[in-house]
Amino acid sequence: MHNYTLSQIAELLSAELDGDGALEISTIATLANARSGHIAFLANKKYRSQLAETQASAVILSAADAEYYQGNKLIVANPYVCYAKLAQLLDTTPRSASQGIHPTAVIHPDATVANTAAIAANAVIEAGAVIGDNAQIGANCFIGENTKIGNGTKLWANVSVYHDVEIGSDCLFQSSSVIGSDGFGYANDKGQWIKIPQLGRVIIGDKVEIGAGTTVDRGAIDDTIIHSNVIIDNQCQIAHNVEIGSGTAIAGCTVVAGSTTIGKNCQIAGLVGINGHIDICDGVILTGMSMVTKAISEPGVYSSGLPHSSNKEWRRNIAHLRNLPEMKVRLKALETLTKSLNVDN
């Protein structure tokens, strides 16, 4: 692990240094758990009280919080963004594949693997596949026929990428993600399901991150498209012919049904369900457990998930919900009566 002086870190973050620039920093920690040689950060004022007790050697914070801490500090406009940049510098995550090609990897002679790419044990790369410079293909990965993996893209162990998929540069795929599996396409003939071959591809841009266990289905005829700088969390389902605009973030366990288009710079929380064949415009925020059943044409925050309550309160509310049809009839009758009384007066 390489240590950095506080002056070096300040230069990297374009931060204002207040303290000992020669101090060496070995890692990042939380305010509560930091020790000597650690740097912490304050990005949420609700943790401001921890500044007085932290054992960190230095703290990254905003100008508004600087007065509450008397130790070594780096003053920045956005502490959370600076934490992210510093975490990249101090990152100790290993490679998913060592340099070179492991002797147990199975690579078809018609595949093209860059000299600087790394292929781990038991990976399988099929005919016509192209693996770019400095790509890392983890253990037990499968790369299908005619699939292209861009420069610097990293696949952790057990990632499956089907045939005819195109993946850009500097992407990251966590373990057990599946890219290019068949979309859920069937026709019903008198009770018998007739499978529709999924003939489209998956096209993924640059700097896309896909979480563990997430599945991105190939298109039925046209392609499933994920544009650059999209991040998708674990256990998500992206169905066939979905298109996701650049800069959009999707949290865990969200499901997007087929042929839906999601715009740029959207934020979709966890456990959201999005119906198929609808369009969601740029700049939409969907809070957790929302169910989206129709198109959204205006940017903003949308919600539909109900917050929890006590079991007793929930049962009472459900009982009222069951009576809504009767209550509607009674309310309509009352409105009619009120109107007639007003007319008579």
Descriptive report:
It is built from five helices and 39 strands. It is α/β, with parallel strands linked by helices. It has three domains: 4-89, 3-Layer(aba) Sandwich (Udp-n-acetylmuramoylalanyl-d-glutamate--2,6- Diaminopimelate Ligase, Chain: A, domain 1), CATH 3.40.1390.10; 100-302, UDP N-Acetylglucosamine Acyltransferase, domain 1; 312-344. 34% of the residues are buried. The model has no long low-confidence stretch (mean pLDDT 96).
Task: Reconstruct the topology from this structure.
Elements: E1 4-5, H1 6-13, E2 16-18, E3 24-25, E4 27-28, E5 38-41, E6 58-61, H2 63-66, E7 73-75, H3 79-89, E8 100-101, E9 106-107, E10 112-113, E11 118-119, E12 124-125, E13 130-131, E14 136-137, E15 142-143, E16 148-149, E17 154-155, E18 160-161, E19 166-167, E20 172-173, E21 178-181, E22 186-189, E23 192-195, E24 202-204, E25 209-210, E26 215-217, E27 224-226, E28 231-232, E29 237-238, E30 243-244, E31 249-250, E32 255-256, E33 261-262, E34 267-268, E35 273-274, E36 279-280, E37 284-286, E38 291-292, E39 300-302, H4 311-322, H5 324-344
Parallel strand pairs: 4-5, 5-6, 6-7, 8-11, 9-12, 10-13, 11-14, 12-15, 13-16, 14-17, 15-18, 16-19, 17-20, 18-21, 19-24, 20-25, 21-26, 24-27, 25-28, 26-29, 27-30, 28-31, 29-32, 30-33, 31-34, 32-35, 33-36, 34-37, 35-38, 37-39
Antiparallel strand pairs: 1-3, 2-7, 22-23
